[in-house]
Automatic annotation (TrEMBL):
Signal peptide limits: none
A UniProt-annotated Pfam family: Glrx-like
GO molecular function: isomerase activity
Keyword Isomerase tagged: yes
InterPro entries in alphabetical order: Glutaredoxin-like (IPR008554), Thioredoxin-like_sf (IPR036249)
Name of the protein in its database record: Thiol-disulfide isomerase
This protein's UniProt keywords: Isomerase
Amino acid sequence: MAKWILYHTDGCHLCEQAEQIIMALIDNRSELLSVDIMSDEQLIAEYQISIPVLKSEHGEQLFWPFTSHSVREFLAQTE
């Protein structure tokens, strides 16, 4: 199971930037699950104006905008 989920949507340049930041910091690509919010009505309602959002397997969330530093801290706190 993925340790972290990145909520995004296709064509979102901020989401692409977020994924690049995250992938540079995690150990294994399989630890990140990318979920397109357009695949689920509930996700659209919850995240439509806040993507990209990084979520831990425990439910903590990091909302955009974030930096390499803030992602590193989030990953360390949620491991």
